[in-house]
Every structure is written in structure tokens, then in C-alpha cells.
Amino acid sequence: MSSPGGGTGFRGLDENSVGLKDAAYAYRVIDIQAESPLSHAGLVPWFDFIVKAGNTSMVTNEANAWNKPSFSDVVAANEYKRLILTIFNIKSKTTRKVVFTPNRDWGGMGFVGLTVKYDEYTNGIKYVVHVLGIEAGSPAHDAGLQPNSDYLLGTVDGVAFRNGGVLSQVIKDHLDESLDLFVYSSVADTVRVARLRPSSCWDKDSDSVLGITIGMGVKHFIPSDVCDTNGCVPVKSIQTLAAMDSDIIEAENTPGVVRVLGARRPEYDVLTSCGYGQIHGESADGSAIVELDWGLANNALVLGLFQKE
């Protein structure tokens, strides 16, 4: 895919940045373990790909290339050393740098605490399933899926919905069993995990095991007006702004997150369960009001209530 200027057509990414002109496959971020070396790096599951580790390109033209670069080998060779990752986000089509130190001292398995899968990234954003309608009382309804704004991305073990046949097979394989899917919300700009349980018994009058109407193809891609951000992960511990005792100028609530457009100047740095931030004050119950270091769309800030230890 080439732009008139001779690049790849991706903002912030060209053949020089990944080391291969016709790059197609790299390491997709699937899961980040809590308190791991990369847990506070702002990685976004599914949308983020590791295209370079240190000076080593992670990109090839083939999904099953026998000589594909080994991310784990590069990480192991840099134990207790500063390592720079180049991350490409398929939603915003931009690259950024992440710096961390691989180590075994963080309390979990491995050097990084990261689950990745070698997968296609050049067309990865096109493989989405648009949720158009939800039947009341259905498995999709019980899982909290939202019509029009939700998009099914793939399974938590990295199976992308490249076509309707893949989705149908995944559902068939999980009939009457739990099925965890990555879901993107265009309203909250978040990637979350939704647990569904496909069933043919939830309604005798329905011929759908999920109770869902979907769309695929060009007309059902993620809207371009929300593709200027990387997306983010919902912060479950953030509470409503009503109990916050701070100088909030204007705020907007969305499911699972709180977007704040203005607040009191921070006092000092703290480490919370959701990452680093700055204390703004205390709520009525004594909880610390913390502005987290990472933000949301349109440069919106994120405030959370956290119990002091």
C-alpha cells in the first residue's frame, strides 16, 4: 500500500521505521499483566503492535515465516537493560516509543508480563464486526454489548474475525460455553473484554444463539472520526465525579471511564492500581483524588478515587 509520496500510506509509519517496504505482520499486544514491567506503558490490547524491539525489526511479509524475528529472544538478551519498543497502533495509524527494563523481579512469569501474537497489522483494523442490534434478554444483552457503538474485534486468544465464517466457527465452538471477546466502544474509545455465552436455549422464538444483529465490510468499519486516538483500556476502579471534592470545570461520563476537561493543579506524584498520577485533593470519605498520567481522546484528563494505604 503506497501513498503518492512513496510511503506506506500510514501516518507516522514508513518502510524505514519498520525496516521492510511491504511489511504486513508484527506482534499484536493481547494481554498485559498487572504490575509487570509494561503495565504502566499505556499499551492498548488488540490495536497495538510491536514493530521494533531495540534495533531489531519485528516485521515480515508472512504470518508463518520460519525466520520471523523473535521478540522473546530480544527481550531475554536485554535483561536489566533499557529497551525501546516501537509501537504501531492500527486504529490511529501512528507510531510511538515505549521504554522499559525487562526483568524477573516484578513478581510474575517471564521478563515482560506481556502476551503477544504474530498477526497481520496492515489490514488489521478492517477485521471488525459491527454490533447493529441486540435482543432483550439475549446472551449479547447480558454481556453488556451496545448496538451501533460496539465492535467485536476478536477472541482473547488472538483469533481475528477476518470474515463471517471465522466468527460463526468461533461461536459454534463455544456453544453453551463462555466466550471472551475483545470489544471496542466508539463512544468510550475503549477496548474491553466482554464475556458471552452462546446458547440456543435462551429464547425458543429466536434463531440466534447470541441474540445479535451484526454488519461487516466497508460500511461497518470503525468510524474515521474516532480514529485519531489509540484507544485505551477502561479503568474499573474510577468512580463517578459526584463524590469528588475538586475544582472540576467540566466533565463528561462514559461507561467505565470519566473524562475531565479541567481540574485543580496537581500536588505530588503517586502510584495507584491504575498507574502513576498526581493527587488533586481528597473526597468527602477521605479517598485521594488522583489525575492519572495517561489521558483519553481530545487530550481529556482522567481522575479517579483511590483509598490511601
UniProtKB/TrEMBL annotation:
InterPro entries for the chain: GRASP55_65, GRASP_PDZ, PDZ_sf
Highest taxon of the lineage: Eukaryota
Example of a GO cellular component annotation carried by this entry: Golgi membrane
Keyword field: Golgi apparatus, Membrane, Repeat
Annotated localization: Golgi apparatus membrane
A GO biological-process term: Golgi organization
Domain PDZ GRASP-type: 25-121, 127-219
Pfam families on file: GRASP55_65 (PF04495)
Name of the protein: PDZ GRASP-type domain-containing protein
Species: Mucochytrium quahogii
